[in-house]
Amino acid sequence: MAKKLWGGRFSKDTDALVDKMNASIDFDKRLYHQDIAGSIAHATMLGEQGILSQDDVKAIVDGLKGIEQDIEAGKIHFTRENEDIHMNIEAILTERIGEAGKRLHTGRSRNDQVAVDFRQYVKEEIPEIIDDLKSFERVLTKKARLHTKTVMPGYTHLQRAQPITYAHYLMAYANMFRRDILRLQDCESRLDECPLGAGALATTTYPIDRARTAELLGFARPMSNSLDAVSDRDYALELLSDLSILMMHLSRMAEETVLWSSWEFKFIELDDAYSTGSSIMPQKKNPDVAELARGKTGRVYGDLMALLTTMKGLPLAYNKDMQEDKEPVFDAVDTVELCLPVFTAMIDTAKVNVEQMHAAAKGGFINATDVADYLVKKGLPFREAHAVSGHLVAECIDEGKTLDELSLDEFKAASPLFEGDIYQAIDLTTCVNGRNVTGGPSEASVLKQIEEIEELTS
C-alpha cells in the first residue's frame, strides 16, 4: 500500500481515478516559489518561538532553497501521488533532510498553506499587470500628443455625431485604463493580509506568531479570523472582476480598431508586424491581434463566472471545491499578460490617416449642433435653433451639399440672425476648440487630460 502523507487513518489505497481527480499538481506546481517562501517563513517563525530547534530550522530552510534551485533547473519531477505542490515539496524535503522535514508542518494545515500561496501569487501578479497598463497608457499619451489637432468624427449609435480629435478619442481609453489601474491597486491593498497560521480552520495550540509570518512574507497584517482566512477567495474574485472590466475596455478599443482599419473607414492602418494575411485572398490584411483580444475577453469573463459559481454555495470553512480557484485565475492572468503588451505595440505602430479622418469629419453634418449654438448665442431659444439647424441639414441632403457650402442667403432664408461669421463658427477646428470645457475635445482640454495620465504613469 502506497502511504499518503495523510494516510495514517486509511487501510487501503485510494482508487486511481480518485487520485487523478483529486490531484492538483498539474496546475498548482506554478505556485512552487510561493509555497517555498511560505514554508521558509513558517519554519523561521517556529524556530523563533522555540517550537523547532535552530538546527531543524536551518536544515529545513537550506533544504527548501535547494529544492527551489532544482525546480528552476528542471531537475524535480512532481507526482500525482503526492497530490499538490505542498505535499510534493514536503515529501522531497523529507527525503532529502530526514526527520526535520517531517516537523515543518507543525502548527499549520494545507488549508492555510494554499491560502497564503495563492494570495501571494495574486499579490505578485497585480503589479505586473499594472506595469503593462502603465506602458499602454504611455503609448496612448505619446500618440495623443501627436494628434491634438487631428479632427475626426465622434460617434453615437455608430453614426457621425460631433467633431472631436483623435487625441480626445485616445484619452477616453486612457481614462478607462486609469480606472483599471486604480481598481487593481485597491484589490492589492485589500488582499494585503496573511492567512498563514489559521491552520485547518481554528488556528493551533502551538504558541505561533502570526504577525511575524505576515511580516516575513511582506503582508501588512495577519487576517483577523481563522475561518475567513482559509475560506476567503474574495481577492481572487475581485482580481477576476477587475480583469474582466479591463478586457472589456480592451475589447471595445479592439472593435474600433477592426472597424477603423477596414477599407470602409481607413482611419488607421495597422503595421504589418501586427496583422495577418489570408491563405486564399492575396489582398487581405487582417486585424487578428484586435480580433483575438476581443475574443479572449469572453474567456476572462468565463473565468470570473466559473469561480463565482464555485464559491456561491460553500459552507465555512475550506471545501475541496476551492481547488477549482486557481485555474481560472491563472488563465485570466496569462490572458491579460499576453494581450496587453501586443495590443500596446499594435496601437503604437499603427499609422493614423489624418486626411481620411478629416474628410469623414466634413461629412455627416457633425457641425449641425454648432449651427444651433450659433443661433442660441444670437438670442434664439435652443429648441427653435435646433429646428432651424435641422431644416438646413434636410436642405443640404436634398441638394447634396454640406453646411459650409450653403450661401449666406440660404442661411438667412432660414433665419435672419445668420451673419457672415457663421462660416467661422462651423469650421471644424473652431467647433472642436470651442468646446474648451473640462474633459472636452479642445486642444487645451486634451493636453490637461494627457498631463493627468502622464502623472499617473510616471
Could you list some keywords that capture this structure?
6 strands; 458 residues; Fumarase C, Chain B, domain 1; Fumarase C, Chain A, domain 2; two-stranded parallel sheet; single chain; mainly alpha
Summarize, please.
This protein is mainly alpha-helical and 458 residues long.
Overall outline: elongated
* CATH class label of the largest domain: Mainly Alpha
CATH topology term of the largest domain: Fumarase C, Chain A, domain 2
Put simply, the count of helices is 20
Total discrete domains? 2
Based on the coordinates given, report the CATH architecture of the largest domain: Up-down Bundle
Question: What's the number of extended β-strand segments?
Answer: 6
Q: Which class best fits the helix and strand makeup? A: mainly alpha
Q: Give the overall pLDDT as a whole number.
A: 95
Distance between the termini: 60 Å
According to CATH, the homologous superfamily of the largest domain is Fumarase/aspartase (Central domain)
Q: Note the main sheet.
A: 2 strands, antiparallel
Describe the fold and architecture:
- The chain has about 450 residues and is mostly helical.
- The model has no long low-confidence stretch (mean pLDDT about 95).
- It folds into two domains: about 15-105, Fumarase/aspartase (N-terminal domain) (Fumarase C, Chain B, domain 1); about 110-205 and about 225-360, Fumarase/aspartase (Central domain) (Fumarase C, Chain A, domain 2).
- The strands form three sheets. A two-stranded antiparallel ribbon has the order 1-2. A two-stranded parallel ribbon has the order 3-4. A two-stranded antiparallel ribbon has the order 5-6.
- The longest helix has about 35 residues, at about 110-145.
- It is elongated and about 100 Å long.
- Helix 3 (about 30-50) packs across helix 9 and helix 8 packs parallel to helix 20.
- The protein is built from 20 helices and six strands.
